[in-house]
Design brief:
It is globular, with a radius of gyration of 25 Å. It is about 30% helix and about 20% strand. It has 4 domains: about 5-55, Single Sheet (N-terminal domain of TfIIb); about 65-140 and about 330-435 and about 465-490, Rossmann fold; about 155-320, 3-Layer(aba) Sandwich (Dimethylsulfoxide Reductase, domain 2), CATH 3.40.228.10; about 565-680, Barwin-like endoglucanases. By secondary structure, it is of the alpha/beta class. The strands form 7 sheets. A 7-stranded mixed β-sheet has the order 5-4-17-16-15-6-7, covered by helices on one side. The protein has a 6-stranded mixed β-barrel with strand order 22-26-23-25-24-27. Helix 5 packs across helix 13 and helix 11 packs across helix 12. Strand 2 (about 20-25) and strand 3 (about 25-35) form a beta hairpin. The model has no long low-confidence stretch (mean pLDDT about 95).
Length: about 675
């Protein structure tokens, strides 16, 4: 039997690790890590290893499926697209273009084809409402850093002497970083600090600071208090390249380590030790956890606070710090539209700085538009590469909103929980059944590297690439002029046209470095902030009516802010920790991955289990003021007492039945997933 090896990248999560694929008889049979890949260096997680089981899963949606009399019926593509166009056209005629909301899963740089065509269709149709996971994920930190630096510097820890893992456990989410940390620690080349309510395995290699969920701001402000008052800051860098240091110095005097100790459950001596090690061990790099700080009621300012720590210690644009990464130039598929999306009025700064440019609406306000017609009625929805009834807060409200629509269509390789509510489900290709451009490495790894992602296998069933689905739907709505491409090659050539490296990129399976690291950008380039300097004190925030310097904000639900609620719900719930076997709601249908984690569980410290009469392996009822779910307990001595840690992404015990959207970050609209009050009961 003829066998061939093909090099590619894994797009099952944002890291895009290099992979080596064995194909026999035009079928993928094996996936391995790619040692020659300059970023992942041979690392592969269980998800990557079991890509064949994912792609060839019997649970794939292989054909267009239409709901009829409460059941699913298979229909031809022509009929499915005509049906969708008819429904969307009717909604547009009755309510206007903006009555359509499009949900797109990952709209970042690892998903250019999916997001780009969804954005183009949105504007061509006449709706401003592209609603994405970036309303609850990652965008907050990008905006915070752009406001502060005038650009987005990325943490680049390989050359660091000191690394702070702040709410980040690479063993569960970024394995190549975990391997690098262990290698450097073995050679005594690293001072490692972890700030986390859980004592991870990596934390054993250095100093661990356990903190009450939601109080990270107190830790950061107290660290600044120590660094500034003890003269450990980079005076030359602060004086030459920043604005607002004097205001910061005055501001942090109130935030002493002793004050922070009372709030955070950490000791003042440990807070001081962390501050001193970080300030004196250079170069130093804070690696911010994926959404552990963003998903709070003060998330944007928490991300700003980490930026300020890097700034005052001079850990900016130098090897082993936060560095500026050049971006590959691709064709922008977006079409300008004058209409403002949902949330533009409530979150004007976020919209003006990011939403207008992208443009995106605020997804957490979608249920209000669908159920209450505020600010206007949304009556149709298209969901692409997303499962919002599981991943967004207050899941029941999202479910009710989708059920209320006149028409709902889902584009996905699998029948998700959201797809089960749809009128029409269209089968999309997985990443190995179509071409793409992998250039995420700069944004998440700090490497100016890109790969041309080739189609490896033929689509399963009648699955189609996203660009084709959007294009064919547009043509049926009379919008074909915006989608002139007929082949995948035409699409990729159009996207790569401005890059200047299209031919070179296509010539190699391995990918290429398209530029070099842009160190010391603050010296070599104008800083693109209003002041022309790195802004510790943000005039942009001040002019918009927000705090120009980060201040401590207690979680909306806590023993301190809501003591009466804490009497009924005495424990603190954190959700969303990454699991090696799964990516959000994906991969649970893969038997070998499901065997690694057969069901969801609530991690609770043994002393807390004993106090509330629950035992390891037993089923409990976990409740917040928003709802209840049942699941098993896993005693976890590494977790702080008084905390319940629950994974997200499970249909069987959806933690987002417990979360809500009532309190959100005032700038970005991000909800709080990381510090809610809860209770447990044995059942």
């Amino acid at each position: 039997m003829e066998s061939k090896t093909v090099l590619s990248d894994c797009m099952l999560c944002v890291w895009d690790c290099g992979i080596k694929i064995t194909v026999e008889a035009d079928k993928m049979v094996k996936v391995e890590g790619l040692p020659e890949h300059p970023v992942s260096k041979g690392y592969i997680c269980p998800r990557g290893e079991y890509i064949p089981e994912y792609v060839y899963s019997p649970d794939r949606v292989k054909y267009p499926m239409r709901r009829k009399n409460g059941s699913w019926e298979r229909v031809a593509w022509e009929e499915a697209l005509d049906y969708a166009a008819g429904k969307l056209g009717k909604v547009k005629e009755q309510y206007g273009g903006k009555s359509l909301a499009i949900f797109c899963g990952s709209v970042g740089v690892e998903n250019i084809e999916v997001a780009g065509f969804a954005q183009r269709f949105k504007s061509a149709f006449g709706t401003p409402n592209l609603l994405s996971v970036e309303n609850i994920c990652y965008r907050s930190r990008i905006l915070a850093r752009q406001m502060t630096f005038g650009r987005y510097p990325m943490d680049y820890p390989p050359d660091a002497r000191c690394i702070i893992l702040w709410g980040h456990n690479p063993d569960g989410s970024k394995g190549m970083l975990a391997e690098m940390i262990r290698a450097k620690s073995e050679k005594r080349m690293l001072d490692l600090i972890t700030i986390d309510p859980k004592r991870t395995e990596l934390s054993e290699l250095g100093l661990h600071l356990a903190v009450r969920p939601g109080t990270d701001g107190a830790i950061g402000l107290a660290m600044l208090n120590v660094i500034i008052n003890e003269g450990l800051y980079d005076k030359e860098f602060v004086e030459d390249y920043t604005i607002g240091f004097d205001e910061l110095k005055t501001h942090v005097q109130q935030y002493t380590p002793e004050w922070a100790a009372e709030i955070t459950w950490a000791s003042a001596s440990d807070i001081k030790a962390v501050a001193r090690i970080y300030a004196q061990s250079k170069p130093a790099c804070i690696v911010q956890g994926i959404n552990t700080l963003d998903q709070h009621v003060n998330g944007l300012q928490l991300s700003r606070l980490l930026s300020i720590l890097q700034i005052v210690t001079g850990n900016v644009d130098k090897p082993g710090t936060w560095v500026t990464i050049p971006f590959i130039r691709l064709t922008d598929l977006r079409i300008p539209i004058d209409e403002a999306p949902i949330g533009a009025e409530q979150y004007p700064l976020f919209y003006s700085l990011w939403g207008r440019k992208s443009p995106y609406g605020i997804a957490t306000l979608f249920p209000q538009a669908a159920l209450e017609s505020k600010p206007y009625p949304v009556r149709a929805g298209i969901v692409s590469a997303a499962n919002p009834v599981v991943t967004f807060p207050d899941a029941n409200k999202f479910k009710d909103a989708f059920k209320s629509l006149d028409f709902l269509m889902v584009i996905d390789p699998f029948m998700t929980d959201t797809a089960e509510l749809a009128d029409l489900v269209l089968p999309a290709c997985t990443f190995l059944e179509k071409a793409g451009i992998a250039y995420v490495y700069g944004v998440v790894h700090g490497e100016p590297y890109a790969m041309y992602h080739r189609k490896i296998i033929e689509p399963v069933g009648e699955s189609k690439p996203d660009w084709w689905i959007w294009s064919e739907l547009a043509r049926r709505l009379g919008l074909g002029e915006y989608f002139p491409w007929q082949t995948e090659e035409e699409v990729m050539d159009h996207l790569l046209a401005p890059s200047g490296i299209a031919d070179k990129l296509k010539e190699t399976e391995m990918g290429i470095y398209f530029d070099k690291q842009d160190y010391y950008a603050y010296k070599n380039k104008k800083i693109l902030t209003p002041s022309g300097k790195i802004e510790i004190y943000s005039k942009t925030l001040e002019d918009a009516g927000y705090d120009p310097l980060p201040k401590y904000v207690e979680p909306a639900q806590s023993p301190l802010s809501t003591p009466e609620l804490a009497k009924e719900y005495p424990l603190i719930l954190i959700s969303g920790a990454r699991r090696k076997a799964f990516t959000h709601t994906q991969m649970r249908h893969v038997p070998k991955l499901r065997a690694l984690e057969p069901e969801p569980f609530a991690e609770i410290h043994p002393s807390t289990c004993s106090r509330y009469g629950v035992k390891d392996g037993e089923r409990i009822r976990l409740s917040t003021r928003n709802g209840s779910i049942n699941m098993r307990v896993k005693e976890q001595p590494r977790l702080m007492p008084g905390i319940v840690a629950v994974p997200h992404g499970w249909s069987q015990a959806n933690v987002n039945l417990l979360t809500d959207m009532e309190v959100r970050d005032p700038v970005t609209g991000y909800p709080d997933f990381k510090a809610l009050l809860c209770k447990v009961e044995a059942i």
